[in-house]
Amino acid sequence: MLKFIKETRSEFRKVIWPSKEEVLNSTVVVLWATVLISVFLFLTDWAFNSLFQFVVHAGTGS
């Protein structure tokens, strides 16, 4: 177990951690992508729902 901990610490020292600015920029990109995809899915869902409602109402003669 002690060997595992020493090796883990050794590997963590080799990691190149991103800067605060890189993390912030990546976070902003992910948030914007999430918003854009959400809006796209909302509009697509709304369009298909409207089309479905039109077809259903047209089929019933109402």
Strand and helix map with partners:
Layout: H1 2-14, H2 20-60
What can you tell me about this protein's structure?
With 62 residues, this protein is mainly alpha-helical. The protein has helices spanning 2-14, 20-60. The longest helix has 41 residues, at 20-60. The chain is elongated, with a radius of gyration of 25 Å. The model has no long low-confidence stretch (mean pLDDT 94).
Look at the structure and give the mean pLDDT. 94
Question: How far apart lie the N and C ends?
Answer: 74 Å
SS class: mainly alpha
Strand content: under 5%
The string of secondary-structure elements, in order, is: HH
pLDDT below 50 for ≥5 consecutive residues: which ranges? none
Fraction of helical residues: over 70%
Shape: elongated
Rg calc: 25 Å
Q: Quick one: how many beta strands?
A: 0
Q: What's the total helix number?
A: 2
Largest sheet: none
